[in-house]
Design goal:
Structural class: mainly alpha
Distance between the termini: 33 Å
Helix content: 40-55%
Strand order of the largest sheet: 1-2-3
Number of helices: 12
Number of strands: 7
Shape: elongated
Largest sheet: 3 strands, antiparallel
Length: 329
């Protein structure tokens, strides 16, 4: 229940299937490997040995699927999950997200799943998505001043409180609702804008800045477009986008790359590429805003269309990162 409170705050929806769900299928996993002739007994444990997996001394590395005392372990559960997801769920893609320390485990489990017939990558693509460590501003693993692990709920609440103070300084009207969106966005974006395989330094001050690659900067750019849209309510019906000024050309070409970036993150599961794209989009829009007047200009219609398209792509990109938008800040 406490976890679900955090998920609700982050606007995350889960379909829960806990580890115990697979308990009835564990014995069948052992039988499947035995029938395929893949099981070997080592020191009383039932193991699978696979090519390419060796220990520190070069000895064959076992994947234990039933311990000598008859008990099961994570490997057995993960194999049962592969079987259920491909045979029952008919999954076309399986993505497992863990810290980088689990890389070897899932390399071995996925290879065993292929050998036993649970995973056929012509029918189902498998990706293990490892992530790095969050560091404090002292460069060490992120902890409280007393050395304890930081609770996520406390971190999120502090982000909201800091966002609230920031908005109050700017005289925002609906501070409570906006602070929640801004605070959550700031934390999520700081995480997703970093390459997931690398460690990154957590800093409230940096993630809530109006400059640089932050959620606040992206939202401010979106809000700026909303302001233009309120002033210039409708483009002329015959208006078409025209790219003449260098800033218009740069913005238009960058907008055209959105689909290409989505293909990259779908293939590589690297959301920081989308964050980089959106940051560059916001920068190019601000250059356009500086150089090209929209309201009451001879090119008002075409430029409003360019603004509208930029807002649409910004909103869609933020949505794909799990972020919400604001129309005023």
């Amino acid at each position: 229940r406490r976890f679900n409170e955090i998920y609700a705050l982050l606007n995350i929806k889960n379909t829960e299937r806990g580890e115990s769900f697979y308990n009835p299928y564990l014995q069948d996993v052992v039988k499947d490997f035995k029938q395929k002739g893949l099981l070997q007994v080592s020191d009383g444990a039932k193991c699978v040995f696979m090519e390419g997996f060796v220990g520190m001394e070069g000895e064959p590395l076992p994947l234990i699927i039933q311990k000598s005392d008859g008990g099961f372990n994570y490997a057995t559960t993960d194999l049962a999950a592969f079987k259920y997801r491909t045979k029952e769920d008919l999954a076309e893609r399986i993505v497992i997200v863990t810290d980088a320390g689990q890389r070897l485990h899932f390399a071995m489990v996925s290879e065993a799943a292929r050998l036993v017939g649970y995973l056929n990558e012509e029918k189902c693509q498998f990706d293990h998505v490892p992530f790095g460590v969050v560091l404090g501003e002292d460069g060490k693993k992120f902890k409280t001043r007393s050395g304890e692990t930081v609770r996520l709920i406390d971190l999120l609440q502090e982000a909201v409180d800091r966002a609230k103070a920031l908005l109050e300084e700017r005289g925002h009207e609906d501070v409570e609702a906006a602070a929640k969106i801004l605070g959550m966005n700031a934390v999520k974006y700081a995480d997703l804008a970093s390459s997931r395989t690398k460690d990154y330094t957590f800093s409230f001050d940096r993630m809530l800045k109006f400059q640089g690659n932050t959620a606040v900067f992206l939202l401010y750019s979106y809000v700026r477009i909303c302001g233009i849209q309120r002033k210039v309510k409708h483009a002329a019906s015959d208006a078409k986008i025209q790219l003449e000024h260098p800033s218009e050309v740069a913005l238009g070409l960058h907008l055209r790359r959105f689909g290409e970036v989505l293909e990259i993150i779908d293939r590589e599961l690297t959301p920081h590429h989308l964050a980089e794209y959106l940051y560059s989009l916001a920068e190019k829009f601000n250059a356009f805003f500086r150089d090209c007047h929209v309201e009451n200009d001879a090119k008002e219609g075409p430029r409003l269309l360019l603004c509208n398209l930029t807002a649409h792509i910004l909103e869609k990109g933020l949505y794909l990162l799990g972020l919400e938008t604001l129309e005023k800040m």
